[in-house]
Amino acid sequence: MSQPLVSIILTVYNIDPKYLTGCIESILKQTVQDFEILVVDDASSSDYGYLEKLSPKIRYFRNNVNLGLCKSVNRMFTEVRGKYTVRLGSDDWFAPTMLEEEIAVLDNNPSIIACCCNLVKCWEYKKSIIRRPVVWDLNQILHGFYKHTGYAGGMMFRSNVLSKIKIDESLKICEDFAFHLELLRLGSIHAIPHNLYFYRKHDTQITKKFLRDTRLEIIDGIIQRFKLRYRIH
User: Fold this and answer.
1) What pTM does this model have?
2) What is the mean pLDDT of residues 159-166?
3) 147: which of 19, 118, 175, 207 is 20 to 30 A away, CA to CA?
4) H helices present in 33-81, as ranges
């Protein structure tokens, strides 16, 4: 089977089918169609096996037991066949040109290890925009200037890094922030200043259960461990 250009990792756990349908449709409507969709069902009570019938691009995997997000994503990392990898939450969606725009950045800039975009946070009755740094600075992030650098949505990276790094399975939250630090150790991250990833907000999300101060303490711990591991002062 020929290598797809992009592997899209989609994690599923007891998600409302109406959200999941919109998510899948946003992928299938991309202006670039050279991709595979890796769906990992983390032992949901519902059966999502029907997703494979929606497109030959979909590869469906089901965990026998609930492994959690980090282990599920790492499992999919071992299945990636694309030159580039990007993740999508099962209740989120892509703008039609997201893959095309991020691929162009990575294709034209070999020194860039990953590319992302602005996020649009969507509640039922309002929206807000998360504007990520256009060029991410590892030194600044390690010294506390890490605003908007912890979201996985729409972060496309070169798949060859997966032989060197993975998601930290010891973390319950902020695991994406830790992963991005590892990406920055290997190369630069740039953001397209366009609103290309739509992030659905609702009360069932795990991060809603953690107070802001708790999240900041976890991020500080991640930074300190990173500095110690790589002898950064």
Assistant:
1) 0.94
2) 97
3) 19
4) 69-77
